[in-house]
Amino acid sequence: MQSTLTATTDYRPGLEDRDWSFKGATTDYGTHDLHKYPARMIPQIPDALFEHWTHTGTLSEGDLVFDPFSGSGTTAAEARRHGLNAIATDINPFACLLSRTKSTVPDLDTLESAIRQCLGTDWATREQFIEENYQSAASQHRTKHGGDIYTEDSGDQNYNAYGVRKGWFPEPQLAKITAMSRQLSELRAEYDHEVIRFIRIALAQAARNISYQRDSEFKRHRIPEADRESHDPKFTETFIETLRENFYGLVDYATQVSDETTATIKYADCRDTSVLAPDSADAVVSSPPYGDHSTTVAYGGFSTDPAAVATPLKLDQMTDVDPSGLGGSKTTSDIEFATVSEWSPTLRATVDALKDVDGRDDDVLHFFADYAETLEQMARVVKPGQPVAIVLGNRTVSRVPIPMNVITIEIAQQFQLDLEHSLPRSIPSKTLPYENAPENIPGQTGGLIADEYVLIFRAGQ
Ligand SMILES: C[S@@+](CC[C@H](N)C(=O)[O-])C[C@H]1O[C@@H](n2cnc3c(N)ncnc32)[C@H](O)[C@@H]1O
Questions:
Q1: Does residue 243 sit in the same domain as residue 378?
Q2: Are 86 and 67 in contact (CB under 8 A)?
Q3: Which atom of ligand 1 is nearest to 287's Cα?
Q4: 99 lies in a domain?
Q5: pLDDT tens-digit profile of 213-267?
Q6: How many other β-carbons are positioned within 10 Å of the β-carbon of residue 124?
Q7: Overall domain count for the chain
């Protein structure tokens, strides 16, 4: 009787026995919802993997996990919750700031006093000053959309003086957001960067909530023009609410991580071999982009306004992100198109089908040649015999399906990454269009991702 009870308590489902869809799971616990970065991986995936691997002895406390595509930092944050160290890369400097914030716990008392100070009497005076002066400035310069009121330009006619695209924010809220950002720069003299960075991420999310950008669509869209005049959210209240929620999330996270572990986030192309020595990571857990940023998810485009209004990041750093993503106009690979399509018969067949449709075959080959290099990098840095988990979905290009899961498995073989599990998951809550229809009509979508896969490989011995 006793042994049966023990066996029941100890029972843990194997990787194949779990439901990887995690329907109904709460995904915003701890620091996971500090900012709504696009295409975040649900934390339950790294959580389940780390739980399984630490329980089965594949990973031990203090081991190192690598995430080449950090995004918001889900893998790094979860690794620390499981007593593991993390290293991650991203070519988006805003994603790097967010990942660091999500996986670091600043001193909570100091953070609380910085929050009090940035919303104290000085702020009330500044806010009132903006309100009064804006009213007089606005009466002279006001045009239909808030962003157009600026007389002074940043040089590019599409951007206003704050370095954000015109017409995406109401006024005077934009002036208040950027004034708060300046105040945070001043507070930097008194508080360390982790404290100020935490507040900046909340400011970036509050700015997103205040902007004209609509929720629930993947491409950037605004609320209808007719509704913009009446869109008048209160800056200070929105910011305080976001800060409060983020702070509670951090307090929750703080109880779950130990000072013994660290997360290192590098602003780098994940293919850069100086990022990590060969055979140095104990596991890889990552979700790569599904295609070049310009036809799938514009991570840079989504991050540019939050970065411009809430952080000291430069506009040109941000506009560089999308062309520098895999398959982007600024990237090249040492792996030839012919080589990658030789490695993957499925890629070759896909490209042939595309050739017949509309000649986008080279775009797809470009993406997969870059992507193959990232698989090579994962295989290079992971220790022999250790796991590599890749979460991905399939998309369509010009309505031709791109079976990225099969292509990944075929290319990975070249680097002695042997498939152990292909775990399908359905994502009913994800209504996000991964590619605009070929007609490129905003809001209309081509293929939707119906499924994702968690592919688990073992590195060759
Ligand atoms: C699907 S998102 C990752 C989401 C992440 N798992 C999360 O939970 O937030 C893919 C990320 O890859 C980044 N990226 C694209 N090309 C890259 C490259 N060559 N090196 C590093 N990061 C890259 C993008 O900027 C984006 O943040």
A1: no
A2: yes
A3: 6
A4: no
A5: 886 556 778 888 888 988 989 999 999 999 999 999 999 999 999 999 999 999 9
A6: 11
A7: 2
